[in-house]
């Protein structure tokens, strides 16, 4: 894992076309801005894990209503 220190309005780049900028810091929350090509999917980790779980369940025929409800209730 690479660990970097950034302040407000500072950024990091990933490859040639992804930039992550620190837009603000408020207490223990950090607001990030992410610039990436439209074909790059960007999700909060908890959403990504829920999507992965739903995909796994669907692939194995065990898709539950609970996973569907979780996906519907996620807020962006």
TrEMBL record:
Coiled coil: none
Xref: Pfam families: CsrA
GO terms classed as biological process: bacterial-type flagellum organization; mRNA catabolic process; negative regulation of translational initiation; regulation of bacterial-type flagellum assembly; regulation of carbohydrate metabolic process
Predominant subcellular localization, coarse grouping: cytoplasm
Cellular compartments annotated: Cytoplasm
Domain of life (superkingdom): Bacteria
Keyword Signal: no
GO cellular component: cytosol
Subunit structure: Homodimer; the beta-strands of each monomer intercalate to form a hydrophobic core, while the alpha-helices form wings that extend away from the core.
NCBIfam families from the UniProt entry: csrA, PRK01712.1
UniProt record similarity statement: Belongs to the CsrA/RsmA family.
Biological role stated in the UniProt entry: A translational regulator that binds mRNA to regulate translation initiation and/or mRNA stability. Usually binds in the 5'-UTR at or near the Shine-Dalgarno sequence preventing ribosome-binding, thus repressing translation. Its main target seems to be the major flagellin gene, while its function is anatagonized by FliW.
Descriptive protein name: Translational regulator CsrA
Organism (species): Pullulanibacillus pueri
Taxonomic classification: Bacteria, Bacillati, Bacillota, Bacilli, Bacillales
């Amino acid at each position: 894992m690479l660990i970097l220190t950034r302040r407000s309005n500072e950024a990091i780049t990933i490859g040639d076309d992804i930039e992550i900028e620190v837009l603000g810091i408020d207490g223990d929350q950090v607001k990030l801005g992410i610039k990436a090509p439209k074909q790059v999917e960007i999700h909060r980790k908890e959403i990504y894990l829920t999507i992965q779980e739903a995909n796994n369940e669907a692939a194995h025929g065990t898709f539950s209503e609970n996973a569907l409800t979780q996906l519907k209730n996620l807020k962006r």
